[in-house]
Amino acid sequence: AQTIHQWPVAEIKAVGSPLSLGCTIKGKSSPNLYWYWQATGGTLQQLFYSITVGQVESVVQLNLSASRPKDDQFILSTEKLLLSHSGFYLCAWSLGPNTLYFGAGTRLSVL
Amino acid sequence: GQQVKQSSPSLTVQEGGISILNCDYENDMFDYFAWYKKYPDNSPTLLISVRSNVDKREDGRLTVFLNKSGKHFSLHITASQPEDTAVYLCAANSGGSNYKLTFGKGTLLTVTP
Q1: Please, which pLDDT band fits residue A95 given cuts at 50, 70 and 90?
Q2: Is the distance from CB of B109 to CB of B49 less than 8 angstroms?
Q3: N or C: which end of chain A has fewer CB within 10 A?
Q4: Which chain B residues touch A31 with a CB distance below 8 Å?
Q5: Starting at the edge strand that comes first in sequence, how are the strands of the sheet with A65-70 ordered?
Q6: Residues of chain A with C-beta less than 8 angstroms from the C-beta of B49
Q7: How many residue contacts between A and B have a Cβ separation below 8 Å?
Q8: CA-to-CA distance for A10 and A8, rounded, in angstroms?
Q9: CATH no. for residue B12?
Q10: Which domain holds residue B49?
Q11: Is B32 near chain A, with CB under 8 Å?
């Protein structure tokens, strides 16, 4: 069975500090991977997607970056957090381009 | 602009009634349409989806209706139950090798006993 694990579950960070969020998918070979973000009261927005190791496409510019160092791992990061980065971050995987399976998410508060 | 719109932030239906959730879209190229369900403090999960070559798809108590000329699709839930209470997100994509699934803002459905 496929499992998707996101870490950490929650983070409280200071403005200007760095951030690294992670996501690991087990039980599926070469999945498509995604990062989504939802501000409080906002819409779930796609940030990045990756269809293969080492290749990441940016969908929305939010001063964040993503990397896929291994087939089963997707990392979201920034060197300098902004207040506007607060929200809920979801990692997801799929085999085709449509049906997404989401992780449990990371809640980020930037103060 | 928002490509996928759910104009009703909330909907209340009595148990046993029909819940109708609506979604409008702007992009003529969308050919895949889906509904996800999200409980509080949980992640969205796919409920039902449909491709643009059909205008209706049924799955148990769920039916998706697609109106391509009106750029509108809806989810009907018959015999609504309190456990259907959740946020429902519509989503659309233009298919092929497009990996950008766009979501609406969500509608909170509350089914009252």
Answers
A1: confident
A2: no
A3: N
A4: none
A5: A3-7, A19-26, A73-78, A65-70
A6: 98-99
A7: 53
A8: 5
A9: 2.60.40.10
A10: 4-112
A11: yes
Q: DSSP 3-state assignment of A83?
A: helix
* Domain tally, chain B: 1
List C-alpha distances in Å: A101 to A17, A33, B43: 30, 10, 9
* Architecture in CATH for domain A3-110: Sandwich (2.60)
pLDDT tens per residue across span B57-113:
999 999 999 999 999 999 999 999 999 999 999 999 987 667 889 999 999 999 999
**Would you call A68 helix, strand, or coil by DSSP?**
strand
CA–CA separation, A89 vs A80, rounded Å? 17
Structure tokens at A77: 């990061």
Residue B17 gets which letter from DSSP? Answer: S
Q: Where are the alpha helices (DSSP H) in chain B?
A: none
